[in-house]
Amino acid sequence: MITTRFTTPTADSFKPAVFWRLREDIPPALSALLMGLSVLVPLAVWGLIASLGVVNAKFLPSPLMVAQALGGLWSEGFLLGDTGASFLRVAVGFLLAAVISVPVGISMGAFASVRSLLEPIIGIVRYMPAPAFIPLLIIYLGLGEAPKLALIFIGTVFFNTLMIMDAVKFVPKELLEATYTLGGRPGQVLFQVITPYVIPNIIDAFRINMASSWNLVVVAELVAAETGLGKRILIAQKFFQTDEIFACLIVLGLIGFVMDLSLRFLMQMTCRWAAN
Amino acid sequence: MHLEVNRLYKQFKTRQGPLLALEDINLHVETGEFVCVVGASGSGKSTLLRLVAGLDMPTAGDITVDGASVNGPGADRGMVFQQYTLYPWMTVQKNVEFGLKLQGVGASERRDTAAYFLEVVGLKRFSQALPKALSGGMKQRVAIARALASRPKILLMDEPFGALDVQTKETMQQFMRELWRSTGTSILMITHDVEEAVFLAQRIYVLTAHPGTVQTEVRLDLPTDRTYRIKSTRGFQNYREDIMDRLRGQVSVAVQ
User: Fold this and answer.
1) Could you give the ipTM of this predicted complex?
2) CATH number listed for the domain at residues A67-274
């Protein structure tokens, strides 16, 4: 008797031969199914535990309660306001870091002199945890927006710079020499060969360090803020509204995910040549 | 005399002390001539080409192109590397245009020149493709077109077919022969492949190692119209074996 095989992501797909393919693609249908499960299983487990009542709903609100809290935050206008406040801080702080780290990182990669001058100090400062600067920043800059932006800046500028520097060091020497034999001058090599070559690495560095600035904005808001998702979480804690805390956490995760996807999309649009 | 290399020495500093890579190299390339330098590994043949390109400076001696001293790299000496050196973010056409762009040539002239040389290397169809879509042989043809687009006085080639498979290599050799005949460009090419050198060149310098010196110069008396069939003729084989023997003699000396 003949049976059809490998048509749908059924039991066959889960055979070790397919599931454990080392560094190989799996059927698209199976991939989609597993990606769906990745989100749905934790959601289902959460829903199950909450509905069984083994944990007090005050501590573990059900998904439905969290959705209602989210709706509440939305209708009161807090969701948009707080998300906007946090997002704006990340955007400005990160942009400042990017404006500094791109030219400095490229210079450090391109010129051994600049590298010798800056690498030791950056190497030390980047291991000082950014949140440890908060008290100092508050003393210097007060309680407004400035210390929050400064925190995000400090937390991302050094890593960004070093990652961009490394990317420049990996530009093949032959590519630079080929440019010289075509009549290129050093300035042209720097701006027309090295810089475009590392753009995909710069976007990658942005993606990775964007995650830490998203971390730091919440840290800053938990310490001292009038608005922002971190502040909202702190208020919710005071009133024991765990449903609102869950709602804010989910929003934080989703926004980070969307930012990551947008940078990947930007990479695909601008650097088609670097895609696999 | 077109390219002239006089009493050239190159010494490198190493941890074990100074290492003489090239000793008293004298060679020349006439206008429109195709010259190959063959040598075993360690003969400093790539170093020699880098000096001619101006990418490294000699310890002593001088290099002149049409009487002008070489002090650094320049577009008058186009270079094709063994590694693929196309700009991965530029289309094939932009790659070929790039040398002209660096020199400040206007957009429409760049386009026309690139189109012409892409036609010459037979890749016009691929002008809008990215380098990653090309095979190894095609990439090298683009690199050759890119070097030629700046109208160099001489084309320097450093084992340009070293990374290609045997079939592609043979096609590229045939292509190179035809390209040289149709453009009349002067070419100085480095290779370790004796057969390749005999097939392509009019004259061959045989380099021996430790330190690299010109052991002999061979003028090839072979028909100008060459196809791969020439490789099995008596005359071709004699040249090949003669040069191989000279290189082998060197190897056994080195082993002793």
Assistant:
1) 0.92
2) 1.10.3720.10
